Amino acid sequence: MGSLATSLGIVLLSLAVAVLLSWKRNPGAPADFVITNCSIWTADQDVPWAESMAVRRGRILRVGSLSFVKVAGSDTEFRDLEGQFVVPGFIDSHVHFIPGGLQLVRLDLHDVHTRLEFTQKVQHAAHGLEPNEWLQGFGWSNEHWGGEWPDSSWIDSVTEKNPVWLSRMDGHMGLANKVAMDICDLKSVKEDPTGGSIVRDADGVPTGLLVDAAMILLTSCVPKPSLEQRRDALARASHYAVSKGVTSVVDFGSYFPGGSIKESWNDFEEVYTWMDSLGNMTVRSALFFPLETWPRVAALIKERGRHISDWVHIGGVKAFADGSLGSGTALFHQHYEDDPNNFGLRVADLSWLSESVSAAFESKLQVAVHAIGDAANDDVLGIYADAISKHPRQGHRLRVEHAQHLSPGAHLKFGTFSISASMQPEQLLDDAYYAVKKLGEKRSRGSYNLRSLLGNGSVVALGSDWPVVAVNPLGGIRAAVERTPSGWSHPWIPEERISAWDAVAGYTSLAAYAAALEDLVGSLTPGKFADFVVLSESPFAQGTGIFPRVVATFVGGNIAFLS
After folding, report:
1. Are the C-beta atoms of residues 126 and 179 closer than 8 Å to each other?
2. Within its chain, how far is the Cα of 182 from the centroid?
């Protein structure tokens, strides 16, 4: 079976190479369609601007002036875009795609700003549920109502017949009601698991809050989504993504601290592979798997290559170094200003992390590690530097996911060691409300240092971390350029604002490079996939009060979304 799969993989790879070469050898071949009368930003340094683009068999044939790209046959269609703006398809550099699709049909608490609202929303969602049916929700932030942590008493009286699990917006903490805690026998757990904590009251009784690795004590009792629900979630997530102009994602799967390492693999084998086999994929996905499984990833790439198909790509492996700022589990060198006994949480053993990263790196895998606090970022940068010194190679594409809060000078190491920073601009709009409270004025200046990283030659790829924040590249571009939270009249850390050009590149060419997909997507270059977005306005006109919207999204030359 293995030899058959290997042979099939070689055949498919050969066909793909042949198709790509055909574009380069036959530039005069007739186009399937040509878009005209538009402003095209290609993200290709050789031809950055164009007014027309020809597409053939799902790939870009030519870009330039209409006279140059006019390689028409009898069936070629000309599409007049009436002066609209075209950019490469956006790439969201950090999502949890199937969990995001699942969350679209669950209780959303993002907009809750008081305890009363919290209780009422849960009560409304619980109404009509069958007894013992689980209620799942997400998105709450205690900072929205002043910082007080919720506990099960907020919702117990309105959910007496149903177990409840509500994830905080960052996914590093959740709230369970009494029914759920009783089902999971949480009272019998006397010690916190490594890399997590059970929040208890003064008498040692669990309050319902579980942090990072401790969440598995509750989530292991929650019924897993069925195969049909997961497949529906991928379709739902894809439809949502293309409506936002996203044509490719870097998917870090269903693995979270303390969670099962099997779920990302199950999703790959049972959901992605299935949908790909039916020809129903509409968003290209680079998949990352838990670092614990790096030998399996290496074996898969050896057998089938990194590009399983035009739609499914093997990205690499991912681990966690710490938690999140909002949950008080991001790891810092100094204690939290509002919690003097708390330095954050190291969610992975440092020796294991170092050894595993080194082994995966030696096997030429792409490695990504979640790091939020300054101490966690310094840990990861040190581990990466050690791996590079032991096994030096060019084009390694090591990534730090989030890189939110850096110690002085840390940004220089990203450039020195060619480490990509995968960052989420819209999250800064939330962190701005409480970063000073948690870190103090001086330390908070090291937050979301986008401009400093870019100024040092680092690759900064942008994304959302959906479902933490919704997929929305246009919103992310605006956040990176303006850095002004809702209700503020001034930007947060204005010196770290970046240009609209850099922000759009962060969702296109730089995102493609950070995911090792730059030969396929990220720019409108002949031979690459015809993945592009039609916008109502230029995305580079930030600061004018005019904001573009997505008019249409094309993936492989096909219309995936039309407003």
Report:
1. no
2. 34
Residue 223 CB contacts under 8 Å (≥ 6 apart), including other chains? 134
| Residue 9 burial (10 A CB sphere; 0-12, 13-18, 19+) | middle
Q: Write down the residue that tokens 């010194």 correspond to.
A: 389
* CB-CB contact of 353 with 408 (8 Å): no
Distance CA 364, CA 297 (A): 11
pTM over 0.85: yes
Does 363 reside within a domain? yes
**Using CA atoms, how far apart are residues 29 and 32, in angstroms rounded to an integer?**
10
Task: Give the domain CATH number at 189.
Answer: 3.10.310.70
Position 535 in a domain: yes
Are 250 and 209 in the same domain? no
Same domain, 489 and 534: yes
Q: What's 72's domain CATH number? A: 2.30.40.10
pLDDT averaged over every residue in the chain: 93
- Same-domain status, 306 and 210: no
For the stretch 336-367, pLDDT in tens is 999 999 999 999 999 999 999 999 999 999 99
In Å, what is the CA distance from 38 to each residue of 63, 137, 233, 539? 12, 43, 35, 14
Say if 343 falls within a structural domain. Answer: yes
CA 156 to CA 147: how far, in whole Å? 21
What is Dmax (Cα atoms) for the chain? 80
Tally of domains in the chain: 3
Quote the CA–CA distance of 323 and 214 in Å, as a whole number.
12
Round to whole Å and give the CA distance between 87 and 83. Answer: 13
Of 390, 391, 394, 346, whose CA–CA distance to 370 is shortest? 346
Range of the domain at 356: 91-96+225-558
Q: What are phi and psi of 318, to 5 degrees?
A: -135, 145
Give the pLDDT confidence score for residue 257 in this predicted structure.
78
The dihedral over CA atoms of 17, 20, 22, 26, expressed in degrees to the nearest 10, equals: -160
- 118 to each of 142, 155, 175, 240, 418, how far by Cα in Å? 10, 8, 12, 26, 44
* 3-state SS track over 256-308: CCCCCCCHHHHHHHHHHHHHHHCCCCCCEEEEEEEHHHHHHHHHHHHHHCCEC
Q: Encoding tokens for residue 297?
A: 């990833």
The pair of structure tokens assigned to 11 is 């055949």
Distance from C-alpha of 84 to C-alpha of 75, rounded to nearest angstrom: 24
pLDDT tens digits, residue range 457-506?
999 999 999 999 999 999 999 999 999 999 999 999 999 999 999 999 99
pLDDT value, residue 26: 53
Residues 6+ apart with CB under 8 A from 337: 437, 438, 439, 440
Give the closest residue to 366 by CA, choosing from 425, 413, 319, 303: 319
Q: Average pLDDT for residues 528-537, to the nearest whole number? A: 97
Pair type for strands 59-64 and 367-371:
unpaired
Residues 171 and 48 in one domain: no
Same-domain pairing of 345 and 248: yes
Instruction: Mark whether 72 and 214 lie in a shared domain.
Output: no
Residues 316-328 pLDDT 10s: 999 999 999 999 9
Q: Is the peptide bond before 526 cis (omega within 30 degrees of 0)?
A: no
